[in-house]
Structures are given as structure tokens and as C-alpha cells.
Write a structure and sequence with these properties.
With 521 residues, the chain is α/β, with parallel strands linked by helices. Helix content is 47%, strand content 15%. The protein is built from 19 helices and 19 strands. Helix 9 (310-322) packs across helix 11 and helix 17 packs across helix 18. It starts with a helix and ends in a 5-residue tail after the last helix.
């Protein structure tokens, strides 16, 4: 009789504990700043579990993620995923039925991705898992990993887990919806950023880190009145950067005058830049304003600035210092409100040392330098540039080129590109003309690119660089096959979606372009 009373008292105590737990969990779930980890901690104290996990199904990605856990010693769970039907958790979510595993070491379905111990203190570990349901929709699973140091009370634990699971399912569903909404917003934000970038930097194509640094510098300097010096090899697109700076400045509606200093003879460059008065020299039958006056209120772009003769450099120094010019043959100073953008592929520092370029002028124009990387330093942009040029020449020449083969891309990726983007553009235009089946093949490429070693322009690199190129190309081809679907591409390559995402980020790839340019390698 005494034992019966003691058991009854124990049962009443357990019921009170359970009710108190449910009340605490209910209060926590109703809080505006819900912390799912607090709910897990409360449940752990009641069940004395070694590990508790809440797993949530991402419906769009068809993957199961660990949303919250106790007892995993700060393990990184971000790359732990299950597919529906995979392991015990995957089976519970797929079937909607609870599973009890008395001894995990004897269960083949327990795949143990997280690395839980199979024994604790030399005792067998059990695993209990129930589905989380909201309005008959399975949204995840609640599971515990526990050593029963006595007679297992699976039924009591499963009953409590079921009650708690039904309570937290709604909260988990809200979090699931929030995560999905955030994913959508991130995608939209990424697309908007890309659209803004394409509109803001018209004609500057690529996703490489070095190019994004150029974009950042353009965005910083464009709204100012600062003099800009654009440096880089011939053919890298310095003029496009000057366009972007002007058309994103407050002077965008004012004149934008471009001058190729290398194309002007030394005896004519001053008259072109500053103008001349009538009768200033033989043949000056009328007055003519120069390029600086024509650009008044706007921007003047001095391309190939390093080719300006020393005699003209002196006058340019005054323009930059005083914002005043004098026409040839005139004696009147004319104020000009002009922003100056210069570009050169010359080594100005070396020219200063050789006394062919004025040091004081160098410091006047080198206020805000922008270095434009050569194509060999941004090889990952080649597929994007190729797609851009194919579209351009399709429209320009009335062609319908659909794609470029993987072998052709391989040839483009190992070439050194001494002529930079201009050379690539000419190459793709040639290929579009030669293609007879609306596909660009390796044999359509110029001979020097088909066999880079013959022209001693092959790209040198370490084994790591070569392997990175190969990996990038494989991922690129797979994304073409899946039309930009990251999940399918990861499945084909036998890696997780997270691993695929990390590699896409590493190689600055944009899966969206494979939907836009379907089938173009």
C-alpha cells in the first residue's frame, strides 16, 4: 500500500513537472522575441536528454536543415543537411510517422551526419524522433538522443515530445516562412543590384572581385568633382570607366568631350585643346574654340594622356590649377568649369624619371587613380563577356548564334590575352562570322588561341590555379545543363548545395546568367 502511494505521488509530481514545462514553453512561444533555443533547453531539462534537435524542411530546396539544437558543443550545423527519406530524420519528415530507435548502433538507417556518440559511459544510446506538423503539413522533426539509465520510458517521452512538437510546430512554421521570404528577398536584391550595376556601368561586363572593386571606386568618385586618372593596359575598357564616371555625376546632362591625345600631332594638340583666335597662324581664318571650352560645365576625357608633349603639359598644368585657358594667339584668360578625367597605359613614374613627363602635372592628375585589371587577371569573367559579345553581334549582324562549346571556352581560358577585352571582342566577332551551325567551336577561334603555346602566350600557373580553372569549368558546364538550377547541379556533381554555393561564390559566378543565356557556355 505504501509503495502504491509513493508511485502515485511520483506520478503526480511528473505530471506537475510536465504541466509546468508546457506552461513555460507556451509562454515562450507566445513571446514576441521567440528564441527557439530556450524552448529546446526547457525540454532538455525535463527529459534529461543528451542531445535535442529541431530540423526544418526547406520546401523549395527540398533539403532539411538543423534549425536549433542542444548538446552539440557549438558544432557548425550550417552545412548539415538531409534529403527527405534520408536517415531517420529524413524518413520521419517524408512519412510523417514517429520513429523510436532503442539502440542507434544497431540501426542502419541512423546515418549520424552530426557525429553523435553511439555509446555514453559504455551505455547504449536511444534516438526518438517525431514529425512537426502544422495543419497536416509536415514542416520538420523534433528528435532526442538519450541514454536511459534504467527501464526506458519511451512511451512517456514520445507522448511529451508529441505534445511539445504540436505546440512548437506553428512557431517553426513561422520561422520557415520567414527564412523562405528572406531567401526570396536576397534573390530579388541580388537581381536588383545586378540590374542597377548593368544600368549604371553600361558596357562594363563581369563579376570578378577586381572588377567589383573598380565599380566601388566609380560609385565613390562619380558624384564628386575630383580629377580622375584611369590606368591600365590598352584594350581593358578605360573609356567605359570614364563614361560611367561622367554619366553618374552631377554633370551627366552637360557636355562630355573625348580627346585621344595620341591621335593628335604635336603641332595641333594645343589648338585642339585650347582653340585659337582668327589670324593666330597661317590658315586660321576664323576663331575656333577648343575642347576645354566645348566641355564647359561638363567633363573632358583625355585619353592616352601620357602621349601629351612637354610643351603642352605646362599649359595643362595651369588649366588644372586655375581652371583657366588662353586660346592660341589670344591674350585673354577664359574661365572654364570642367571636370578632367585622364587615362593612360604608360608608366608615368618611369617617364618622370626620364624627364618626359612633368612631376607637378602627375600630382595634379593623380588625385583619384583607378586601376583597370587586364583580362588575364579576371579570367573568370570570360564566359560572361563571351555571352555579352555573342548577344551584341547577333543583334548587329542579324545572326542567331546560340552557344559556345566547352572546348572553345577552355581555349579562351588558357590564352594570355595581350590585347585584353578588345582582342576578345574581335575574336568573338570573327567566330560569329565563321560559325555555320549557330555554335562557336574551337576550330572557329583564331589559330593563336587554338594553340596558345605556339604564340608563347599560354597561361602559367601553379597546380592549384590549374585545378581551380578545371573545377570552375566543370561547375560552369553543369549549371548550363541545369539552366542555372544550383540544387540540380549539386546533385549531378555529388556535392551538397552549400558546397556548390561556396564554389559559385569563390569563382564569382552568377547562376542567373545561365537562365538568361540558355545553352551558352
Amino acid at each position: 500500500m505504501g509503495n502504491l502511494c509513493i508511485n502515485r505521488v511520483r506520478e503526480e509530481c511528473e505530471v506537475k513537472k510536465d504541466l509546468n514545462l508546457l506552461l513555460q514553453i507556451s509562454n515562450e512561444l507566445n513571446a514576441t522575441d521567440l528564441n527557439i533555443d530556450v524552448v529546446i533547453d526547457l525540454l532538455q531539462k525535463q527529459l534529461k536528454a543528451d542531445t535535442i534537435m529541431i530540423s526544418v524542411l526547406n520546401r523549395k530546396k527540398e533539403l532539411i536543415y538543423v534549425e536549433g539544437a542542444y548538446g552539440l558543443n557549438n558544432k557548425d550545423l550550417t552545412n548539415i543537411t538531409y534529403k527527405p527519406g534520408e536517415g531517420v530524420i529524413g524518413n520521419v519528415i517524408q512519412t510523417g510517422k514517429m520513429i523510436i530507435v532503442p539502440c542507434i548502433s544497431d540501426c542502419k538507417e541512423f546515418i549520424n551526419k552530426i557525429g553523435l556518440p553511439y555509446k555514453i559511459d559504455n551505455l547504449d544510446v536511444s534516438f526518438l524522433c517525431i514529425p512537426l506538423k502544422e495543419k497536416n503539413e509536415i514542416i520538420g522533426a523534433l528528435s532526442i538522443h538519450k541514454v536511459y539509465r534504467g527501464v526506458p520510458n519511451f512511451n512517456d517521452n514520445m507522448q511529451l515530445l508529441s505534445i511539445v512538437g504540436s505546440m512548437i510546430a506553428r512557431a517553426v512554421r513561422r520561422r520557415q516562412k520567414n527564412h523562405e521570404a528572406i531567401d526570396e528577398l536576397r534573390k530579388e536584391n541580388s537581381m536588383l543590384k545586378q540590374a542597377i550595376t548593368e544600368r549604371t556601368f553600361k558596357g562594363i561586363v563581369g563579376n570578378s572581385g577586381k572588377l567589383h572593386e573598380v565599380f566601388r571606386l566609380i560609385q565613390s568618385v562619380a558624384p564628386t568633382q575630383t580629377t580622375v586618372l584611369i590606368r591600365g593596359e590598352s584594350g581593358v575598357g578605360k573609356e567605359l570607366i570614364a563614361d560611367a564616371i561622367h554619366f553618374n555625376s552631377k554633370r551627366s546632362t552637360k557636355p562630355f568631350i573625348k580627346v585621344n591625345c595620341a591621335a593628335l600631332p604635336d603641332n595641333l594638340i594645343e589648338s585642339e585643346l585650347f582653340g585659337y583666335e582668327k589670324g593666330a597662324f597661317t590658315g586660321a581664318t576664323t576663331q575656333r574654340i577648343g575642347r576645354f571650352e566645348a566641355a564647359n560645365g561638363g567633363t573632358i576625357f583625355l585619353d592616352e594622356f601620357g602621349d601629351i608633349p612637354l610643351s603642352t603639359q605646362v599649359k595643362l598644368l595651369r588649366v588644372l590649377q586655375e581652371r583657366q585657358i588662353e586660346r592660341i594667339g589670344g591674350n585673354k584668360s577664359i574661365n572654364v568649369d570642367v571636370r578632367v578625367i585622364c587615362a593612360t597605359n604608360k608608366d608615368l613614374e618611369k617617364m618622370i624619371a626620364e624627364n618626359t613627363f612633368r612631376e607637378d602635372l602627375y600630382y595634379r592628375i593623380n588625385v583619384f587613380p583607378i586601376y583597370t585589371p587586364p583580362l588575364r587577371e579576371r579570367l573568370h569573367d570570360i564566359p560572361t563577356l563571351v555571352n555579352y559579345f555573342i548577344d551584341k553581334f547577333n543583334k548587329q549582324n542579324g545572326r542567331t548564334i546560340k552557344r559556345i562549346t566547352a572546348s572553345a571556352i577552355d581555349s579562351l581560358m588558357v590564352y594570355h590575352w595581350p590585347g585584353n577585352i578588345r582582342e576578345l571582342e574581335n575574336c568573338i566577332e570573327r567566330c560569329c562570322i565563321l560559325s555555320t551551325d549557330d555554335v562557336i567551336h574551337s576550330y572557329n577561334l583564331p589559330p593563336t588561341i587554338q594553340n596558345a603555346s605556339s604564340s608563347k602566350t599560354e597561361h602559367q600557373g601553379t597546380l592549384e590555379v590549374i585545378l581551380d580553372k578545371l573545377e570552375k569549368q566543370i561547375i560552369h558546364d553543369t549549371l548550363i545543363t541545369t539552366k542555372g538550377n544550383i540544387t540540380k547541379a549539386a546533385g549531378i556533381l555529388g556535392i551538397t548545395e552549400r558546397m556548390m554555393g561556396l564554389r559559385i561564390k569563390k569563382y564569382n559566378m552568377e547562376p542567373r546568367i545561365f537562365k538568361t543565356h540558355e545553352g551558352k557556355n
